[in-house]
Amino acid sequence: MLEGTKIGSPPQMASIFDIAKDTLLFLLLSCYYILESLFWTLVPNALRPMKSLKGDVVLVTGGGGGVGRQLAIKLARLGAKVVVWDINKGGSEKILVTISRQSSEGLAYENNGSLGAAARLSRRPSFTLHKTCVAAFQEGYNIASYVVDLADREAVYAAAQKVKNEIGKVDVLINNAGTVFGETLLDLNDSAIETTYKVNILSHYWTVKAFLPDMIKTKKGHIVTVGSVAGLLGTYRCTDYSATKFATVGFHESLFTELRAHGHNYIHATLVCPYYINTGMFDGVTPRLMPMLEPENVADAMINSIRKNEVNCIMPASVRYLLPLKCLLPAKMCWDLMHRVMKGPQSMMQFKGKPKVAGG
Ligand SMILES: NC(=O)c1ccc[n+]([C@@H]2O[C@H](COP(=O)([O-])OP(=O)(O)OC[C@H]3O[C@@H](n4cnc5c(N)ncnc54)[C@H](O)[C@@H]3O)[C@@H](O)[C@H]2O)c1
Predict the structure, then answer these.
(1) Ligand 1 centre and the CA of 66: distance in Å?
(2) Domain coordinates of the chain in residue numbers?
(3) What CDD domains does this protein map onto (predicted)?
(4) Strand, coil or helix: what is 221?
(5) How far does Cα 143 stand from its chain's mean position?
(6) Three-state SS across 242-293?
């Protein structure tokens, strides 16, 4: 239950006087909000107060690779207690790696020797969670990592309980994991569509339901939703991916209104919408106008955004100025801009993507 102190009572038939009074107050506050936003845009990060994440438990889903791995390492450097989740054949109900312990070999695993088999099955260059833990360990940080298939609701709830028991309350939840198949609608098989929905959006419901109540209890928390520019503009060969990323926007915005409407202003929510990132997720794609973003820079920008308690983080920022055009311009003009100038669909035709990891 969200409970909390609800803002006001449901609107009754308002008098003209009430509407005028509320509108005037809104206009006055808007001047303040615009000036505040301009001010903070001009102040460099080094000079502005940023939330410290030291000692906070930060859970990163999809922390085994790409942006998630960068986030995990960078958050550990800031003194956060980092927990990463990722998929592996070892089985979602089995916690393959519990909190890493310093030992003569580095990390201690509790996988009964199935690590090698899992790594072979993954067809990835190496076992991804292991790589994240080792990278952090080499810098002197311990990261707790759990094998979880986010497409499996019960596994997500079970892993959430394990994290609470073994590590403690999660302060910052970063729903980062994502998957893409990159096929046109008629070539997408039904199970691929279902997997995309389960990983890219449904898992957000399970993780937030698992961790939000403790955030409310302790009056501290931050929920980060990783969407995509493909969740702001429909993308070729992404009927499933784009749709789930549009859903992340609705999820974040609705959750934000629920938190604020119930007076939980101390719980922050950030939506991150990056353009293509050079992680291999969209391997083969060659965007025409802008180069792909680098995962290190995306992770830095995300962490800064979290530390500033920003509600929206679109990368690169220039994209936010293009978005209103899609509502303002005639549809034919938008399509012409998309395929003639930006060559968006043509570049997605080169999509190769990454091999998929089998879930537990
Ligand atoms: N790469 C891009 O161009 C791009 C652009 C915009 C947004 N994004 C989004 O950013 C986020 C991170 O993307 P990335 O580029 O780092 O991708 P990535 O493929 O490098 O990493 C995603 C991670 O999620 C994990 N994962 C996938 N399915 C899982 C499951 N069922 N259970 C648990 N873990 C699972 C993968 O194993 C992987 O480690 C994703 O949400 C993605 O949709 C990516």
Answers:
(1) 7
(2) 56-348
(3) 17beta-HSDXI-like_SDR_c (cd05339)
(4) strand
(5) 19
(6) HHHHHHHHHHHHHHHHHHHHCCCCCEEEEEEEECCECCCCCCCCCCCCCCCE
**Each residue of 42-70: pLDDT tens digit?**
888 888 889 999 999 999 999 999 999 99
- Work out which ligand 1 atom sits closest to the CA atom of 292: 3
Task: Find the catalytic residue in 109, 146, 241, 275.
Answer: 241
Is residue 272 a contact partner of residue 289, using CB atoms and an 8 Å limit? no
Give the C-alpha separation, 165 to 139, whole Å.
27
**Pairwise CA distance, residues 358 & 118, whole Å:** 9
Question: Which residue, among 226, 77, 53, has the nearest Cα to 143 in the 3D structure?
Answer: 77
Report the CATH number of the 56-348 domain.
3.40.50.720
Tokens 């889903």 locate to 61
Between CA 129 and CA 264, with CA 59 as vertex, the angle to 5 degrees is: 165
Ligand 1 contact, 231 CB (< 6 A): no
Looking from the CA of 212 toward its CB, the CA atoms found within 13 Å total 21
- For residues 151-175, average pLDDT: 97
Pairing type for strands 81-86 and 144-147 reads: parallel
Q: Does the active-site annotation cover 241?
A: yes
Whether the Cβ atoms of residue 92 and residue 360 lie closer than 8 Å to each other:
yes
36 vs 76: CA distance, rounded Å:
31
pTM given for the model: 0.88
* Pocket flag, ligand 1, residue 149 (CB < 6 Å): yes
